[in-house]
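To: structure subgroup
Subject: Chain for Friday's discussion

All,

I'm putting the inputs and outputs inline so they're searchable in the archive.
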Amino acid sequence: MGQSSQSSGSALAAAPPLGPARPIPRLDRLGYGGDYNPEQWPEQVWAEDAELMRTAGVNLVSVGIFAWALLEPTPGRYEFDWLDRVLDLLHDHQISVDLATPTAVPPAWFRRRHPAATLVNADGVRLGGGARQSFCPSSPAYAQASAAITEQLARRYADHPALVLWHSHNEFGGANALCYCPTSAEAFRAWLRERYPDLAALNDAWGTTFWGQRYGDWAEIEPPTTAPTSVNPAQQLDFLRFSSDAHLANFRRERDILHRLSPGVPVTTNFMLANCKTLDYWRWAAEVDVVSNDHYLRAEEPDNHIELAMCADLTRSVAGGAPWLLMEHSTGAVNWQPRNIAKRPGELRRNSLSHLARGAESALFFQWRASAFGAEKFHSAMLPHGGTGTRIWREVVALGADLPRLEPLRGTRVAADVAVLWDWPSWWALELDWRPSVDLNYRDRMAAYYERLWRDGVTVDFAHPESPLDAYRLVVVPSLYLTTAAAAANLRRYVAAGGTLLVSYFSGIVDGNDAVHPGGHPGALRDLLGVTVEEFLPLRTGESVRLGGGTSPAGDPLTAGGPPLTGDVWAEALVPAGAETVLSYLDGPAAGGPAVTRHGYGAGHAWYVSTRLGAAELAPVLTGAYRDAGLVPPAGLPAGLELVRRIGPDGAEFLVAINHADREARLPAAGVELLTGADCDGSLTVPAGEVRVLRR
């Protein structure tokens, strides 16, 4: 096992120095600002905007994201004078620019000229215009037009002194993730020809002897459009892979133009990590110069700051631990959720600093000035409709004053002891039709396990199933239905070398083509987990099962004399094949059989949880896994207190403490608090709803 940071009962546990975090090119400070859309306003407003940005501490704005129709009002005729004036004005006010290619919204003339580029849904319906991303991502006409506007922008602004970053497109795949038009069908067939050496290989991979689907000509293959019954799942999986790659090809085209004409300026695009199912961001991350992400709270959910932390950790992990950019979040309500729940006083600051705690080096919002018209006019902004007399404006200004005090966090890394595996193809495959239960849900399992770790004060990295894991004491697998042979071998190596693994139900079942692994369930993980699943036992709506008995690795009762644990949605008939039973089913279809097991494998242990447990019910199970892993989470922390440790290359340690509760929190700590400048001699107080950043 490799060395990991140490954990103890202290909130400021010692950790060995981590390598320096690679800086973001051309950004020499924490970024603060957001999307700026001057084209929505009369030019006399621009000077006021620039002055107010300086008042708020804004130093970075994204410009031109939806401006294609203004930059190229007719085909081949470009009008850049207005954008020249905007960039010059921003530079005069010491505000840097993340300049966008406006390719998420082709102009109306493009749609009229190229009707074949219109987006088509799975039912064969051509979708209308008047929105963004209403084009086919495989359209050659779109490729040509987007390349042309990208080249014009790069040639004109490559040397502009305000430019620090190129922003390709906007939220690739956000509205047009999948297209089923004839152009996409032909592109899908071309993609398949590159993936498979011949039709025989495709037929074998797709299992086309089932239902007589076998293909004798490439032209016979169609996208998985709406059909009389379930479409071949392997075909659906490959179409999802193709669609992710189609968008990636569009990004690469723009990136390569920008690199060629504007060398040295990094190129990014805003991901939608954890909440975008259709793009495989592990593949995308290697293609961008800087990882950036958009995040919007699920406003109606209680404790939604935990989901925020999960998304931030996933973004940092996709970035390989390097600094990343929070490209968009909101100052208050968003316009597109069913109920536009406003953020409460102080929430804007807590949200922003939670992202920074977990690796972001910017806090950017959508958008600078609230729109007066259009679909997003009720989306919050840094400068609300009510102007500078509003609470949100005062909080924006206060946050802008805080960020320079947190500059010492730049160049440090987040310390984590636990890895959680995340895999987009497994997400896709799990939620295709005709699974054993409609209640199987990838994000649900990710959220439950992450919440348990968060509440235990354990910081998480996410990892690809085939990536090196030896730096982590514990690896958690909330859902890995699709498990490749390489992933299974990786997990076996990890546990055999002394690691502790915890796997949730319905994992290890199929390979990359959604074909069941031979030999019985849980397939690729059966020998590692030391159990055989004889039968899946999905539960009825509202049905639950009770779990009890068993002891932890230290010999303590897992349920500690309390009530039995309750699971729902799923159960399994398990037969141990070397594993010990930790908890048993007390009732339900598997009554008397194992429910949670633990298997010694090499120098490590592999745990298996065969039912759906909520975050609270997972506590005793995780406690047992922590003991196997030698992890001691911080003890006695006040509820609602979020702690993240950052380690500098020189061993300097920072603790970010965010209090989400309505009462003050205290913890033992010593050092200098960056936001207030106060010396802490043995105790740090974090007022209700506040943030403190301690440097040892």
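Points worth raising on Friday:
Residues 291 and 319 are 6 Å apart (CA to CA).
Residues 418-629 form a domain with the Rossmann fold fold (CATH 3.40.50.880).

D.
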